[in-house]
Design goal:
Rossmann fold; Dihydrodipicolinate Reductase, domain 2; 6-stranded parallel beta sheet; 5-stranded mixed beta sheet; elongated
């Protein structure tokens, strides 16, 4: 499989290593010095995009216009998701987007939803969500934390919105989920959910040891996306 890498930072390089290990070829690289409109994508079977939120939509549209399926790991662009979905569908393109490509994290998403359903009828428990990432992480909360928060809101009848605190827990009122983002050196990603009552605490947590899980999941997603049309997520890849 011929892969175009869009974004060549730490994640891009990790994806390159995994792709080569799995027998694929990198045929194009888009980075800050070589924008997408200067790169030949004609030999790419698929593109994998980890860049910046303000560039993601342009990258998606350029790939779809050139009939290149694209896997997108950039987050914080989802305000444009409906327009992008319409664009991809009308042009019979292929897009797979996810807040996190780690197989473990996607299993964690499902556990989070199920726990929220179970706790929905237990008003004595208060839930909060903490996330820790490396200091270079641009968005807060992380896309993974947003997915977890939305999983709680969609499955727990007592919560209708979330409130962000950076480096300290935010003040909340009834119906608000506290989401706290911390930034520390060299942390690939830790997400923790606490349900606390006067008598006990239930905690679930996912700790990434490195970026390999994210990179491997992105390459698996790219392998799955080739020869498909439509808009997909990792739930489609993993049949959740």
């Amino acid at each position: 499989m011929n892969i175009a890498l869009i974004g060549y930072g730490k994640m891009g390089k990790a994806i390159e290593q995994i792709a080569l290990e799995r027998g694929h070829t990198i045929v194009a690289i888009v980075n800050s010095e070589l924008p997408i409109d200067e790169v030949d994508l004609s030999t790419a079977d698929v593109a994998i995009e980890f860049s910046r939120p303000e560039l993601a939509v342009e990258h998606i549209k350029r790939c779809v216009e050139q009939h290149v399926p694209i896997v997108v790991g950039t987050t914080a662009w989802n305000d444009n998701l409906k327009d992008v979905e319409d664009f991809v569908t009308k042009r019979n393109g292929a897009l797979l987007h996810a807040s996190n490509f780690s197989i473990g994290v996607n299993i964690f998403f499902e556990i989070n939803k199920k726990l929220a359903q179970l706790m929905s009828g237990q008003p004595e428990y208060t839930v909060c969500l903490d996330e820790i990432h490396h200091v270079q992480k641009l968005d807060a909360p992380s896309g993974t934390a947003l997915s977890l928060a939305n999983g709680i809101l969609e499955n727990h009848s007592d919560y209708i919105s979330w409130v962000l605190g950076e480096e300290k827990k935010p003040h909340t009122t009834q119906g608000q989920l506290a989401v706290t983002s911390y930034r520390e050196p060299d942390v690939p990603g830790t997400h923790t959910i606490h349900y606390t009552s006067p008598v006990d605490t239930i905690t679930i947590e996912h700790v990434a040891h490195n970026r390999k899980g994210f990179a491997q999941g992105a390459v698996i997603a790219a392998e799955w996306l080739v020869d498909r049309n439509g808009v997909f997520t990792m739930s489609d890849v993993l049949n959740f």
